[in-house]
Design brief:
heterodimer, A: 247 residues, alpha/beta, Rossmann fold, seven-stranded parallel beta sheet, 45% helix, 15% strand, globular, B: 251 residues, 9 helices, 48% helix, NAD(P)-bd_dom_sf (chain A), oxidoreductase activity (chain A), SDR (chain A)
Chain lengths: 247, 251
């Protein structure tokens, strides 16, 4: 049993983790439709280098747009007549202390992160229920448990994703659909240079493995949960964080 | 899954049947050489070794009682003599002595803690040293959903299994700088001889009512999670507890 020839939808495909998810799925023989919001050039480059259009389709679409999410699913199902996996890898960061956080900042992050997950999930349920099979993996983070300075909106959204995933796991279990979350810890990303310079030494020291994770270290957990063989794992949150949070 | 454990050496305790057998076979199928530990079931262990070697895998049956620290050295010595090293320890062996606490004999508490908790601690201690030398190791401890939820009639078992979770997290913190990860897996209601023989149909149906996926799990479904955690791909996962239970617990 493997994901070879299976079909996946990935949101936030041009993000640091999204890119690893897309290329890892293709490497394992899956076919992928991913959406992205802004980075046209990167999406084009991915399509040019990772796989041809027989196996990889990029669609510029916003997870805040329910219609667009429905059409993402339509594209996958029309093209390949199946849909096996959903991986939500999109993100939106809009940091501020709570006292100064504007309504726009709250809405931006909650609408994209949490409501984005619910929209694409609703869209994939019908074909998965029809096939009586599905693997949904949402990406959350350490913030729901650890908190995140100036990231109350982000932490609230990620916490919401966990509660949503567990509830959905209960609802769709009768159709053989599993729903799990992967919770990355402190991950090195390209935009890290914008972080407070004390952040990386602090983060490195606080993690038992004494290093930040790489996006490519998150994806194996996603692929493990996406595999047909993981059919008895559902409603779980799997931290991949070097041992930072052991709750 | 495409996980390659070629060159790794694994010890699986209690591997002559049930979940342990399945773990041993899955690790071997991924390329690891496997020590099939057993306490009493010599013939069953030999059968596991035969089934692994018949498929081109490497395996050796070694008798040792996890509850008895004196036999840990024997187990370790047999492993390194046969395969030269030890990279993966799967603490799977366990016993049950079910009873309501009010009726539980002291021996029923002692036996379960001796094997399921104390034995695991001492065997892990013995195996850590060679892992530290290699600067690589995987300690995978099979706890139980009972360790998360408790269960009437299993207070001794629940205490031991919950203890294993705390133990595993502590090992994870002590060993992180040595390239050794430690994680626990909590199987839910798994279809083995132990569950089939011990439970009436009525009891089984009651248990299934609490499982969103509405079925018992298969030993192979636990084994897959073990293979994943044992692989290089899981190198940034440590101190975690993964329930493989059809959604029974969602902690």
């Amino acid at each position: 049993m493997s994901i070879n020839d299976q079909v996946a939808i990935v949101t936030g495909g041009t993000g640091a983790i999204g890119r690893e998810v897309v290329s890892g799925l293709i490497q394992r023989g899956a076919r992928v439709v991913f959406c992205y919001r802004q980075r046209d050039e990167l999406a084009e480059e991915m399509c040019a280098t990772i796989a041809d259009e027989q196996r990889l389709i990029a669609i510029k679409a916003d997870v805040r747009d329910a219609e667009a999410m429905n059409s993402l699913v339509e594209v996958a199902v029309r093209r390949w007549e199946r849909l096996d996996m959903l991986i939500t890898a999109h993100s939106a960061v809009n940091n501020a202390p709570v006292a100064e956080m504007t309504l726009e900042q709250w809405n931006d992050v909650l609408e994209t992160m949490l409501r984005g997950v619910t929209r694409i999930t609703r869209a994939v349920l019908r074909p998965m229920q029809k096939a009586r099979y599905g693997r949904i993996i949402t990406i959350t983070g350490y913030q729901p448990l650890a908190g995140g300075l100036t990231q109350a909106n982000y932490a609230a959204a990620l916490g919401g994703i966990i509660g949503f995933s567990k509830s959905l796991a209960r609802e769709v279990a009768p159709w053989g659909i599993t729903v799990n979350s992967v919770a990355p810890g402190l991950i090195s990303r390209p935009h890290m240079s914008s972080f407070d310079p004390s952040y990386i030494p602090w983060a490195t020291n606080i993690v038992p493995l004494k290093r930040l994770g790489a996006p490519a270290e998150i994806t194996p957990a996603i692929f493990m949960l996406a595999n047909p063989e993981a059919g008895y794992i559902t409603g779980q949150v799997l931290p991949v964080d070097g041992g930072w949070r052991m709750v | 899954m495409q996980l390659d454990l070629t060159g790794r050496v694994a010890i699986v305790t209690g591997a002559s049947r049930g979940i342990g057998r399945s773990i041993a076979e899955a690790l071997a199928a991924s390329g690891a050489a496997v020590v099939v530990n057993y306490r009493g079931s010599e013939a069953a262990a030999a059968e596991v070794v035969e089934s692994i070697t018949a498929k081109g895998g490497k395996a050796l049956a070694v008798q040792a009682d996890v509850a008895d620290p004196a036999s840990h050295e024997t187990l370790l010595k047999a492993t390194t003599e046969a395969f030269g090293r030890v990279d993966i320890l799967v603490n799977n062996a366990g016993i049950t002595r079910d009873n309501l606490l009010l009726r539980m004999k002291e021996s029923e508490i002692d036996d379960v803690l001796q094997t399921n908790l104390r034995g695991v601690m001492l065997l892990t201690k013995a195996v850590l040293r060679p892992m530290m030398k290699n600067k690589w190791g995987r300690v995978i401890t099979i706890s139980s959903v009972i360790g998360l939820t408790g269960n009437a009639g299993q207070s001794n078992y629940a205490a031991a299994k919950a203890g294993l979770i705390g133990f595993s997290k502590s090992v994870a913190q002590e060993m992180a700088s040595r390239g050794i990860t430690a994680n626990a897996i909590c199987p839910g209601f798994i279809e083995t001889d132990m569950t089939r023989n011990a439970m009436s149909e009525d009891l089984i149906n009651k248990a299934l009512d609490r499982i969103p996926l509405a079925r018992m799990g298969q030993p192979a479904e636990i084994a897959n999670a073990v293979v994943f955690l044992a692989s290089d791909a899981a190198g940034y996962i440590t101190g975690q507890t993964l329930a493989v239970d059809g959604g029974m617990t969602m902690y």
